[in-house]
Specification:
Blueprint lengths: L19 E2 L10 E3 L6 E5 L12 E2 L15 E10 L3 H12 L4 E5 L10 E5 L6 H14 L6 H25 L3 E3 L10 E2 L2 E2 L2 E6 L6 H14 L3 E4 L3 E6 L5 E8 L2 E13 L8 H7 L16 H8 L9 E5 L15 E3 L13 H4 L11 E6 L16 H4 L20 E4 L2 H8 L3 H17 L20 E7 L1 E6 L9 E3 L5 E7 L27 H18 L2
Parallel strand pairs: 5-6, 5-15, 6-12, 15-23
Antiparallel strand pairs: 1-4, 2-3, 7-11, 8-11, 9-10, 13-14, 14-15, 16-21, 17-18, 18-20, 19-20, 22-23
Length: 552
Amino acid sequence: MKSSSNKNLTRRNLFKAGTIVGAAALGTTVVSGCAPTTGQELSTTGDATEYAKPASGNATLNFMKKPEPITEFVDTKEYDIVVVGAGAAGVACALSAVENGAKVAVLQKELTAISQGNFCSGILLDSSDLAGVEAVTSAYMFSNHHSSRREIVDIWAKNSGEAVTWLIDRALEAGAQVMDVGNDAQMAVTNVNGYKLNYVTAFFGPKPYTYGDGMIALAGLAEQKGVDFFYSTPGVQLVTDEAGAVTAVVGDGPDGHILFNATKGVVLACGDFQNDEEMCDYFVPELKHIDRKCMNRTGDGHKMGYWAGAALSSTYSKMVHDMDAGPVAMMDQPFFLNLNEKGERFAPESIGMYVTNNYVSDEEGCGYYTQVFDADYIAHADTFPGLVPPEGLLPYMPEEDVERAGVFPDLIGTYAADTIEELAEKLGLDPITFKASVDRYNELCEKGSDDDFGKPAAMMIPIKTPPFYGIHRHVRLSCLDGGLEVDGNLQCLNTEGEPIKGLYAIGVVGSGSSGGDNWLAGGSTGSACVGGTALGRSCTAGYVTGRMLAQQ
């Protein structure tokens, strides 16, 4: 990995110890969760919680307050590397490190390893054009509004083929349910700017089997190879020496605090802060009415790093989507009609799901909208790839008595009806407004001109042939990407841009890979969006960081 000091980080709004002026108004967050024992998603929504709101003006937020040092321990343990978090990045880091000869410990707040998702992608350098690798990297930068740092993105682009290939091999050794689906999830990006690209794509599935199940198996393999896992033991505080170097991490074990000394480094891999109301309402207040997919993501790594002097970015890319109400391949179909909970069209459908949340994130919308199309939709499969035939929709239809392989039954939301009004009723929407919106859309389609939102004429396909279909999407927050500033070695930086010895941040705890407000916002509007990049980045960061630290 690259070495740099990054003294100039002025383009990001970094947080320093002290107060923040003009803290955003805090509000109520509704949280739904991921099962902590399986890594699979649940649809149950928790009760909203009110909490104290700081006065406007100068305010010191609770997460900024550095706690008193913990000095009493029930045990002290010695390791080369201590990883905090057993997720996609942390498990890969630990396994990579132990295979390279390091003595490794992993602290995990939960009872088991935890992760979400299904696809993990990498670029095969030996069968891709070098210019193609650079082109897809530039396209990724475009998708993130050019706010990413290329040296961070390069860690994935230049190492991911090796890392994901390694992951598949180790997952199979561990007995996980995984396969390489190659370019199947990347057909739109096998040629970028005329340059050839090939991918390795680890698929952990089909659902309800997920990447989380794969990480449980991989953690078991890491343990067999010598990694010590400490479950139900969250990391709560970093220990620094007089020079500010991180030398240890304090874990809160079942019997009390444990000091984990780390001679080569502490690696923070503990996920985002989507379940910390105060942090969310300060950094991403627009998500107040968007449900969460995960639980216990309270920014532990962000807080510990910040308290130890690491610079904290104010930019967080929100990954908000729904891949369960209907087929994932159809979530971004630009020729469907999208209607909100009022039954009204609200944006050009070509914008894609990753930014649609911005239109349905108010208290009334709560992340819900409906994709509407008719029986002739499959005729456009050549023009709009990814369409699933009608029989493929059946497992997603609550009204159908069929085997529901590959879905989460409590999250499906696809319906069919012989009339538009009946479809609206099934979706729980006002049939009068719903039909008026469909009629208006059909009128514009016949005219060949989207006079309401300007969607390309080629994407304006009328909805006239029964049965009519509606996929009731519920976009929820999967992840907030960003946090502690890092250099090209994923080593944390202080507010002066200097590396903090002994401290690293991988996965979504570290900043620099994303940058825009919405994850891959340009991915559906012409840029190259590589499916599985989020998990691919985490796997790659863990793989290269574990190896690098072990070999020091």
